[in-house]
Amino acid sequence: MIDKPMLILIAGPYRSGTNGDPQAMAANLARLEAAAWPVFATGHLPVIGEWIALPVYHDVAEIPRRTPQETA
After folding, report:
1. Would you say the pTM of this structure is higher than 0.85?
2. Would you give the end-to-end CA distance of the chain in angstroms?
């Protein structure tokens, strides 16, 4: 377990394959958001986007749970 939150990238298509269709982009975003929630629940900060490079986890079970340290 770790005591500091990690920024964890949620990668996946947003515009790709949508041909600019707003409904298809909304569906892609909904899938990205659905993947982000379990990461947030582990105590970390999910980031949806492709501009940041971070460690790769293929399953939320691989992410170490955060255990915040109490400040004195």
Report:
1. no
2. 20
